[in-house]
Each structure stands twice: as structure tokens, then as C-alpha cells.
Amino acid sequence: MPVMNTYAPHESGEAIEDKVESLLDEMTLEEKVGQLNQLNGSEHTGPAVSEVDKEAEIRAGNVGSILNVDGYEKRKHFQRLAVEESELGIPLLFGYDVVHGYRTLSPIPLGEAASWDPVAVEEMSAVAAAETSAAGIHWTFGPPVDLTRDARWGRAMETSGEDPHLGSELAAARVRGFQGDDLGADDTVLACAKHFAAYGEVKAGREYNTVDISESTLRDLHLPPFKAAVDAGVGTVMNAFTDHDRVPAGASDHLVRDILKDEWGFEGFVVSDWNSFRELIYHRVAEDEREAAQLALEAGSDMDMVGHVFVNELVELVEDGVVDEAMVDDAVRRILRAKFLLDLFDDPYRYFDDQRRDSTILADDHRETAREIARKSIVMLKNDDDVLPLTDPDTVAVVGALADSGDDVLGDWRAQGNPDDAVTVLEGIETATNAGTNVEYTKGYERSGEAPEPLREQAVEVTADADVAVVAVGETWELSGECSSRANIDLPGEQRELLEALRETDTPVVAVLTNGRPLAIPWLDENVPAILETWFLGTEAGHAIADVLFGEHNPSGKLPMSFPQTVGQVPINYNHLPTGRPAEKAEPGWGTSYIDVPNDPLYTFGHGLSYTTFEYSDLDLSAAAFEMDEQIQVSVTVENVGDTAGAEVVQLYTRDLVGSRTRPVKELTGFRRVELEPNERREVTFEIASDDLAFWTADEEVAAEPGEFEVMVGRSADDIRSSASFELLD
Ligand code: GLC
User: Fold this and answer.
1) Helical pair 325-341 and 289-299, crossing angle rounded to 10 deg
2) How many other β-carbons are positioned within 10 Å of the β-carbon of residue 150?
3) Which of 271, 442, 495, 595 is a Cys-bridge partner for 303, taking CB atoms 3.0 to 4.6 Å apart?
């Protein structure tokens, strides 16, 4: 009998396992199947499915969980029905998508990833957990730990970008933040690593499209963040809608049973995505509901989110001898274990504490935490002639519908985020400037992107009279998120035309970019002296942006995802493979390339400027070679040679020079965020062990291979400041 070891038990693992077993022994087959059934309280996050009488189903013991139940009192009511009016009184699990905050919103995950600050990300996830649990919700469908190289995909906004190492660090941080070290505590919630797996590889970036990747790409890029989440003790995992090797994830015993449960020893439970078990029929791998239920359960998926196929079909499948009841028992065991870990049996109403709710949600210190990570998420892409930071301008023009929108800064997956709570760019600037500064706002373009002549003319007039123009451009929040893929990733509408008009004035323009994905902005890069990438920064957006604009915070964000020159380069990623005709090695004209655009992105992974300057020196390795069971230290000295304090994200990359499969030209192997005062220098040290160099080898195992490696340290994937080499011995 397994003893919990993947997430810290509220009490001893044995005690919980004993309780699970004794409850399981009491349950009828119908009651067991009921625990595998999740209903929806509303259709906020998926298409309508067959309506059922929720109260009757709860009383009958046919429901294990409900997601998206609108309202604290309604959740309390449903829990009372389950606990006091069903035969066994097993509490319900309430699930909800708390992805970047419950009511106090942090930046969208892609924005948080730009902070490269796992400590800050963990802290913000803990704030989200405190608010979620105070609202009577036990389980968040987060963190999303998908990786993507495709800016067309709308859900890039939910990812940590293109790199497995950064994605793994942040996945673990978010799990720790949500679950804490005791799921039985009042302010922690069950987390859910999603979407298992490789959803970010949808072909052509088109939402829900098929995924067609090698086992190597799955293993080397997409699985590490999930493994990191499992190793951090995540309590649940959610299937992807998509397929791997032509098998939909929910029915893939390779993904779920072989890798997640057997190879990794995952002891939590697996929930489908919205209706994705029934969608096995639409994928054409199941004839009907009965076969869909059988395939999903046999693959190791445990709970059916709003598909109703488990509750409709599993009892008969077991009674007909088609499915072994032991498989049902294993699924039920995992779900009951989670409920015991959350201490729901001892006190099913523990999460319903009106006073805690009122004092926790949108607390001032939560806003402070959100502001801090929002500041750290801002990436300064460009700052010609040190236009930034702004120093006491007499008049600041603030241009753009996006500058006056509390709605857009919240991004997608906003849970209970409220635009009325949010600080807009305009409000942030107005608050940050003193009475002596005149702030003039003009819309410039409609939220739809159109920039009719009257709006343009007014914007030109206001800009011409100002010392500087802060122009908010980019996407409205609906242009990214689920079901929001874009084939064109330029600035929407006529925003560029507006910028062209503003360029005719002599007023320097600072572009504040809001977006849920990398955009193709070569014109902006060529024509605007300063660009801040601000994603959708959440409730404290305006204050964070003003903090950077006026120098209260020195920007330290780094891109977690490459920005292409054009959508034609997509998918594009820094850790690409060399090919047999690397552009830099092949005969001119015979290397991997396009004839119309360069291979390089506009801005590469890890790019981000600062108001100060950092210098690197004294790269040193503790040894030139080491054995498989040893490690080496890599140290480098970083100095702030400017006159402003700032944080630097020191990036360590390695390259495996020869492997049994092709190996990337470089891979992020470590990073450190260091804060340095002017003239302060710090030795930054990394450890490299063979595990850090492992990949999916030709022997079909995750392992490092002996040989020569290059090690590089720098400010970004294409700003390497120093390099050396070492040998991994057999
Ligand atoms: C949605 C999303 C998933 C979410 C679920 C429940 O379709 O794909 O990320 O957690 O349904 O809302």
C-alpha cells in the first residue's frame, strides 16, 4: 500500500491510507464511480454539456467534485447536501481556475515568468491560495506548466515560455505556493499541473489542433516542468485536450500510466480537461461513451470533468467484466486521499469562514505582493538615448485606449479579478507624478484597434505639446487565452498608423506593450526609442509600470519566449538544433535559412535591459572534468558598474557537443537573480551535475552521456559574456 510521499501529508501517510482503505471498503460500486464524476456549476470555461439536477446527483452520492460553482453561499449549500444528505457524507471538492490570482491578480503566467524569480512567484501563488481557500474553494486548476515555442497559440499567455529549465523552476515554485507544506492548513489549496502533455505544440498554433512531436521533444522539452511539479508534490494533474502520437492524452496509457504514474510514481489523481473523455469519440478513437469511459480509465485517468461518461458507463463496464473494479478502486483511492489530505472529512466547512474571507481577499499586503512581482515582470526591450527613466517631465502625454483600461491589464484566466480594483497605466502615471507635472490623456485609437482621423489628430496634438508620450499599444485581453490563437501576430488594427503619426512630432515616444504572446513588432523596434514589455500585469499594473517609467524600480525582467521578426519564423526558439547545415558553418547560400528574413528573432530568449550596466568576469570551473556521480561548480563575478542599483538575471547555458541524438545549440542549465548596488560585485556560483545534462538518449532513457560540453554565462541567449568547456567522464 503506497504511503504518501509526493505531497506533504496533513497527518502521517499511514493514518491517511488507513482511513482511505476503510472508507473504500464501505462503498458500493455506484458510490465509488460517483467520486470520479465532476459536475460544472457554470459554463464559464467550456461549452455547455448535458444539464443534470446537481442537487439530486449530490444527494445520490454521484458527485465527487464540482468546478466553477458561482458563489460562496452556493458552494456552502452544495457541501451541506453532500455531507448531510448523501449516504456516506463524503465532502465535495470545489475546483476553480486560479491561474494568476483569485481576486488580487498578478501578471499572467508568461509575464510572471519574465521575472525569473521563483521566490516571488511562490510568494504570489501563496497569496492566490490564501484568497482561493478563503472563498471556500479547495482546488485550483493551476499551475499551467505547458511549454510553447509558438506565439500564434493563444494559451502562450498561460505558459512560462519556451524553456524547460525556467518552466520547471517556476512550476515547482507555483506548486509550493499553492499547496504550502500542509494541504490541511486553512490557507493552502490542492494544485493541478496542466495540461498533460505538450498542448503547447498544437500544429500551426491553432487552438485544440493536433500535436505531432517526437518522443525526444516530449521528453526533453515538455515533460520536465511536469516532472518538477510532481517532484514538488502536486496533488493533481490534468489531461491535455490534444493527442500524443495520435492518442488523445486522456486515453494515453503511455503518458498517464507509464510515465506519470509508473515511471514518476505520481500518487495524486488525474482529472480530464473539460469534457475531454467524451471528446475521445470526436477524436475518433472511441465508438461511443462506453468505449470512451473504458479507454480513459484504463489509461490511468481518474476523474471525468463534466463529460458524464464515467458516471454513465463505469458501473456497467465493471458488472460486465470489461473493466476491473480494481482500476476504479485505484482512482477512488487517489481522490479520497486528496480529500483526507485537505482535512475535509474532519471539517468539511473549514474553508467557509466568513471573517477570514472578508479579511483575506484583496488585502493590502496582497496588492503589495502583486505590485512587486508586476514590477519584476516588466522587460525593457529597448531604451535608446536613455529616454527612460523619465525625469520630471513638465508634460506627459498618455496615449491609447489600453492606457485607460482596468479590464485589459487583468488578462485572461482572471478568476474573480475585478477591473474596478485594477490600476490602469494612466492612473499609475497620474499617481506617480507630482503636482508640477501635467498629464494629458488621449485615446488615440479605439479598443478595437481602429484609429480614426479625429482620434489620431487629437493624439498628435497632445503629443506635440508634451515632453514625452507614453503610448500603450498591443493586444486587448481577449486576443489571447483559451480559444484565442492568432495567425497574424502584428500590432492589432491601426495602432501602427497612429504611432507613425506620432513619430512626426519631435516628442520622444515610450511604447508600453500589453500582450498575451510575443508580437512581431519590427517597426516598433526601428521607430520607437523605448519599449517596455508589460504583458497583462494584473491588479497593480499601472503602479508597476509607473515605478519603472519614473525609475522607482530598475527593470530586471527577461524574456521567457523569443519575439519573432515575423510570424513566418514561428515556431522559433533559442534552444534549436544545429541541423546538418548550420547557417554559420555551411557554404554561403547553403545553410539553414530563409531568403527573405534572418533566422534570428527580433528579441531572443533571456533578453531584457536595465538602467544600469553589469559586467562579467572571472568565469571559473572547479574542475575541467567530472564523473557521472560528481558535480562541478561554475562561478562568475558580476559587477554593477553603473550608478543605479539593479537586479541582474545571470544565465548559465550549456551545450552538449556530441550526443547519441542531435543536441541543442545551447540549453539554459541555471540562472540566478542577483541584486547589486552601484559598484557592488558578487561571485555567482552554479552547480552542474550529470542530471542537469540528461536528455532522451538513443537508448530511450533520460540520461547524460559522457563527452565534451561548453558552458556559457551571459545576460541572454544571444548575449554570452564568457564561456569555457568541461568533460563529463564515463
Ligand atoms: C478549460 C481549460 C482548462 C481549465 C478547465 C476548467 O477548457 O482547458 O485549463 O482548467 O477547462 O475550467
Assistant:
1) 60
2) 26
3) 271
Q: For ligand 1, pick from 273, 276, 484 the residue to mutate: most ligand atoms within 8 Å of CB.
A: 273
| Burial state string for 477-487 with b = 16 or more CB within 10 A and e = fewer than 16 | bebbbbebbbe
CA angle 540, 546, 547 (to 5 degrees): 85
Per DSSP, the three-state class of 18 is helix
* Contact present, 654 and 709 (Cβ < 8 Å): yes
CA separation, residue 363 to residues 105, 108, 127 (Å):
12, 20, 10
Tell me if residue 311 falls in helix, strand or coil.
helix
Give residue 585's pLDDT.
82
pLDDT of residue 309: 97
643 counts as catalytic? no
Residue pLDDT, tens place only, 433-458: 988 899 999 999 999 999 999 999 99
Please report the DSSP string for 229-288 in residue order. Answer: HHHTT-SEEEE-SSEETTEEGGG-TIIIIIIIIIIS---SEEE-STTTTTHHHHTTS-SS
Confidence of residue 1 (pLDDT cuts 50, 70, 90): very low
Query: Given pLDDT bands bounded at 50, 70 and 90, which one contains residue 7?
Result: low
For residues 100 and 155, the answer to whether their CB atoms sit within 8 Å is no
In this structure, of 11-15, 573-577, 717-721, the range with the lowest mean pLDDT score is 11-15
Asked if residue 4 lies in contact with residue 341, where contact means CB atoms within 8 angstroms, the answer is yes
Contact by Cβ (8 Å): 480, 517: yes
Per residue in 591-617, pLDDT (tens digit) is: 999 999 999 999 999 999 999 999 999
Cα-atom radius of gyration of the chain, to the nearest Å? 26
Annotated catalytic residue within 97, 273, 407, 547:
273
pLDDT digits (tens, 9 = 90+) for 139-149: 999 999 999 99
User: 238 C-alpha vs ligand 1 centroid, how far in Å?
Assistant: 9
Whether the CB of 45 sits within 6 Å of ligand 1: yes
Alpha-carbon distance of 484 to 482, in angstroms, equals 5
Ligand 1 geometric centre to CA of 212 (Å): 22
- Write out the three cell numbers for 669: 542549465
Question: Residue 6 pLDDT > 70, yes or no?
Answer: no
Ligand 1, atom 12, lies closest to the CA of: 45
Rounded Cα distance between 531 and 525, Å, is: 8
Instruction: Report residue 723 as a C-alpha cell.
Output: 564561456
**From the CB of residue 91, how many other CB atoms can be counted at a distance below 10 Å?**
24
Q: How far, in Å, is the centroid of ligand 1 from the Cα of 579?
A: 37
State whether the beta carbon of 273 lies less than 6 angstroms from ligand 1: yes
Residue pair 342/310 in contact (Cβ under 8 Å)? The answer is no
Q: Please, what is the average pLDDT of the chain?
A: 96
Residue 11: band (very low, low, confident or very high) from pLDDT cuts 50, 70, 90: low
Record the pTM.
0.97
A 10 A CB-CB count for 375 gives 25
Gap from CA of 207 to ligand 1 centroid (Å): 13
CA-nearest residue, atom 3 of ligand 1: 273
198 Cα: distance to centroid of ligand 1 (angstroms): 15
Here the cell at position 703 is 540520461
CA dist 518 and 159 (Å) reads: 12
Q: For residue 449, give the 3-state DSSP assignment.
A: coil
Residue 723 has pLDDT above 70, yes or no: yes
Secondary element (H or E) of residue 364: helix 364-377
Atom 10, ligand 1: which residue's CA is nearest? 141
The stretch 213-242 carries a mean pLDDT of: 98
Distance (Å) of CA 381 to CA 125, 224, 390, 611: 27, 28, 16, 12
DSSP category for residue 217: H
Residue 482 Cβ < 6 Å to ligand 1: yes
Q: What percent of the chain has pLDDT over 70?
A: 98
The three three-digit cell numbers of residue 265, written as one number: 510514481
**For position 588, what pLDDT does the model report?**
81
Which structural domains are found in the chain, ordered by start?
A: 3-356 (3.20.20.300), 373-569 (3.40.50.1700), 614-729 (2.60.40.10)
